[in-house]
Amino acid sequence: MDFIIDAADFSLPDTFDCGQCFRWAARPDGSYTGVASGRALTVKKEGSSLILKGCSEKDFRGIWEDYFDLKRDYSAIRKSVCINPVMREAVAFGGGIKLLRQEFFETLISFIISQQSNIPRIKGTVSRLCARYGRAFESFGNQYFAFPDPETLASQKVADFEELGAGYRAKYILSAARAVADGEISASELEKLPTAEARKRLLTLFGVGDKVCDCVLLFSLGKHDLFPADVWIRRVMQERFLTETAKASGEDLFGGYSGFAQQYLFYWRRNALRP
DNA sequence: CACCAGGCAAGCC
DNA sequence: GGCTTGCATGGT
Question: Tell me, in Å, how far CA of A130 is from C1' of B10?
Answer without folding.
Answer: 31
